[in-house]
Amino acid sequence: MATPSPYGTDNTQVPCPRCRGPLGDFPEDIGGGSRVAVERDVRICGRCATDEAVRDALGRAPLPYGEWPLRDDHLTWADVPKVPGF
Ligand SMILES: [Zn+2]
Description:
- It contains one helix and two strands.
- The protein has a two-stranded antiparallel sheet.
- The chain has a domain at 11-63.
- It has one helix spanning 46-57; strands spanning 32-33, 43-44.
- By secondary structure, it is mostly loops.
- 14% of the residues lie in helices and 5% in strands.
- The protein binds zinc ion.
- Zinc ion binds next to helix 1.
């Protein structure tokens, strides 16, 4: 059985450790697992999970845990250059 959250079951009330925004866009949204943790057991919001994936796609290193919370805007897939022909 999962440990009960002090915030209850509404993940929009849980802060994302990476950006301090809401962890969930809706109460049941569990976000994603951060790539900085080998076990992928650090929960971050969906926008941060996308940011980490985009950094990976761009060949950038993930933002280390020690540099959280994020100060810049989240990257999105729009930040990835389009490959001609695809
Ligand atoms: Zn976040």
